[in-house]
Design a protein that fits this description.
Blueprint: H1 3-11, H2 14-45, H3 53-70, H4 72-80, H5 86-119, H6 128-131, H7 133-148, H8 150-153, H9 169-206, H10 211-245, H11 252-268, H12 270-280, H13 284-294
Helix pairs in contact: 2-3, 2-4, 2-11, 2-12, 3-5, 3-12, 5-7, 5-9, 9-10, 10-11, 10-12
Transmembrane segments: 17-44, 56-77, 97-116, 136-157, 177-198, 218-237
Main location: membrane
GO cellular component, one term: membrane
Length: 313
């Protein structure tokens, strides 16, 4: 939609978009505080570069979430007023796509690593490629940076775009590539996560370990898939519907879909707030360190040192 149409749309739904903007601001504040504390522990306490393979992937996951959160103030502003600066809008979208893609990619790699560790522990030699975690991390960032370039080359829904731009063959190719990357980085990882969850739960039922350990691991992976599904699937499906009905005239149907899409965008940012809880704090070692550093008043409620199984690390 063009800038005037976008502004009219927001003006007619001012209360709703003020609420959206407030939600984004809250997610920004809470998510940034939580992720910064996690980064602090990784860098100054755990020295992640000297730690286990999984710690390097976790660090990159949190880094991607922080970089995504940094752009949220601009997003909150755009929920209330369409940006007149096309370049700023495209840069913000590029960073959004890049860092959300990186967050999903590292989340998927971590899930695959833990899948092999739990379901196929006897095949640790097959994990040698994952031992090259620094190189894999750099590769993921570079690859996603290249694949996200189309977000900078062609207007997006909120970047003051005009339909005549779509007539250019090169622009059509950019749009197609951008949407392929967008949907691929959500649906393929979700399929992988569901597969890993099913196999892990089956394996945990077979292993002769304590019920508490099995429940903890099953809850972790189930929560991981649920959070991913809630944050990203409705957002991606609504995006597909929005692409189908996009046009220069804002009919009532389009207004409804745009409002729903914008609300689900807010929901998708919740992932940045939950990632450190579900993945970083799933390690008993990290959890104890985090509580002792930032929540010492909870220490008296913790179990004795030897009573907690550390098999979830």
């Amino acid at each position: 939609m063009d800038n005037k149409t976008c502004q009219d749309h927001i003006d007619h739904n001012r209360a709703l978009y003020i609420f959206y903007s407030s939600v984004v601001v809250v997610e920004f504040i809470l998510g940034l505080l939580l992720n910064i504390t996690v980064i602090h522990l990784f860098v100054f306490k755990l020295k992640f570069w000297k730690s286990k393979t999984i710690d390097i992937f976790l660090f990159n996951l949190v880094l991607a979430d922080i970089l995504l959160l940094i752009g949220l103030p601009v997003k909150a502003y755009n929920f209330q007023q369409c940006s007149e600066d096309k370049v700023v809008c495209k840069v913000q979208l590029f960073l959004q796509f890049l860092n959300r893609g990186a967050s999903i990619a590292f989340l998927t790699v971590i899930s695959i690593y833990r899948y092999f560790s739990i379901v196929h522990p006897e095949k640790r030699k097959d994990l040698r490629i994952l031992k090259q975690s620094p190189q894999i991390s750099v590769f993921i960032w570079v690859l996603l940076g290249i694949l996200t370039i189309p977000a900078m080359l062609q207007s997006f829904i909120r970047c003051d775009s005009s339909e005549k731009d779509e007539l250019n063959e090169l622009n059509r190719l950019n749009v197609l590539l951008r949407e392929i990357v967008f949907f691929t980085q959500i649906f393929i990882p979700f399929i992988i996560l569901v597969y890993c969850l099913i196999r892990i739960i089956r394996r945990l039922k077979q292993k002769s370990v304590g019920d508490k350990t099995k429940l903890r691991k099953a809850f972790l992976f189930t929560s991981m898939v649920l959070v991913f599904a809630i944050c990203f699937l409705p957002y991606a499906i609504t995006r597909a519907v929005q692409l189908k009905i996009i046009g220069t005239v804002m009919t009532e149907e389009k207004v409804t879909v745009v409002k729903l899409y914008d609300g689900l965008v807010c929901l998708s940012y919740l992932n940045c707030l939950l990632d450190p809880i579900l993945y970083c704090l799933s390690s008993s070692k990290f959890r104890k360190l985090y509580i002792s550093m930032y929540l010492p008043f909870l220490l008296k409620k913790q179990q004795p040192e030897g009573s907690e199984d550390t098999a979830d690390d």
